[in-house]
Amino acid sequence: MFEILIIDDDRSIQMFLKRILEKQGYQVITANTGEEGILRTLDSPPALIICDWIMPGLSGIEVCNAIKKDPKLSTTFFILLTSLDSVADRVKGLDAGADDFISKPIEQNELQARVRAGLRLHQLSQDLQTQKLLLETELAEATEYVKSLLPLPVNNPLSIQFKFLPSRQLGGDCLDYNWLDADTLAIYLLDVAGHGLKATLPSISVLNLLRSRALKDLNYYQPSEVLAALNNTFQINYQNDKYFTIWYGVYNRVSRQLTYSSAGHPPAIIISGNSPTNTEVKRLKTPGMPVGMFPEAKYVDAYCQIEKSSTLYIFSDGAYEITQSNGNLWSLEGFTQILISLQYSVDNQLDYILDYLINLNSKDIFEDDLSILQVKFD
After folding, report:
1. Are 60 and 33 in contact (CB under 8 A)?
2. 234-286, pLDDT tens digit by residue?
């Protein structure tokens, strides 16, 4: 049974409305003032409120504004009861959050019709809220599942740490590292275009494919060959419009050589040196279209000799494509400068980097997944 709250300082109006609506099978409660109406609403949110516009103390506009500001009361349908019929007054009521109006003197059939319509919308809003909560729960579960697939941090013979912060919608970021043999480490980070499970599922597929080495007769020591094989496997078609960027590297800890290839992905950043005065910064990127975009895409390898005291950062574009409070989009250059500034000043750089990005972001959540992987070679 729907509960309806009537807020009116006129007892005769209260009784008139209560009698009509109770005959329709609704449960009706009343309040004599705006303050009392707000308290009753907070105590037990009704499905629909009919509130007089002009009352001593809080007016109907003020009551409506207070109730509509509370997210928990967003589905409560609010009708203003008024003798004011100018366009300006109705605009004022709508701006305060009113959903509908009933004019005085009250016409019984119109009252019943507007209440029925309001309750239908209330029920629809509640159904949408339920579906939204269900979807958010499922996305949260999917996020935890993706996190459970990610590798554990490594401390020996080198240090590998990462930060993975999914956006509210969950996206296509994924990362992994594993030893191809006792001396050779494969490491990669990918970002599937789009958001939601439609982006997450291809990301997990790539992770499982590479982790299990299911691509037969493939030289996993050669990054360009790995990207070419992925491109042949994950081509866009009429059923799947998802492509992804990826940075893939292979590091030999004996020769200290890093072989890498990238497919439309942001460059990895490697910072070398043991003091701010002799710091060297390199951007590691090769030409190559995102995986899945073109069947004939070509990928090439590049090589980097890892100096002593070097740190490698691999990341998705969510780490620097951040809208700041001034409305401007942050840049890769700004992100690089943060990496350099923290290289010698703190030990747990990723914690400080993430705190900085959270403070930099102008919104409560990040618009895109944020993934940063750090490798300290010594």
Report:
1. no
2. 988 755 678 999 999 999 999 999 999 999 999 999 999 888 788 999 999 99
User: Can you tell me the distance from the alpha carbon of 10 to that of 17, in angstroms, rounded to the nearest whole number?
Assistant: 11
Three state DSSP letters for the chain: CCEEEEECCCHHHHHHHHHHHHHCCCEEEEECCHHHHHHHHHHCCCCEEEEECCCCCCCHHHHHHHHHCCHHHCCCEEEEEECCCCHHHHHHHHHCCCCEEEECCCCHHHHHHHHHHHHHHHHHHHHHHHHHHHHHHHHHHHHHHHHHHCCCCECCCCEEEEEEECCCCCEEEEEEEEECCCCEEEEEEEEEEEECHHHHHHHHHHHHHHHHCCCCCCCCCCHHHHHHHHHHHCCCECCECCCEEEEEEEEECCCCEEEEEEECCCCEEEEECCCHHHCEEEEECCCCCCECCCCCCCCCCEEEECCCCCEEEEECHHHCCCECCCCCECCHHHHHHHHHHHCCCCCCHHHHHHHHHHHHCCCCCCCCCEEEEEEECC
∠ CA(172), CA(150), CA(301), 5° rounding? 70
Give pLDDT tens digits for 173-196: 999 999 999 999 999 999 998 877
Between CA 75 and CA 126 the distance in angstroms is 6
Nearest to 152 by CA among 165, 143, 144, 161: 161
Q: Which of 335, 360, 327, 223 is nearest to 285 (CA)?
A: 223
Whether the CB-CB separation of 291 and 227 falls below 8 Å is answered with yes
Cis peptide before 105 (omega within 30 of 0): yes
How far from chain centre, in Å, is Cα 146? 15
Euclidean distance between CA atoms 24 and 111, whole angstroms: 11
- Integer angstrom CA distances of residue 28 from 23, 114, 237, 313: 10, 16, 57, 63
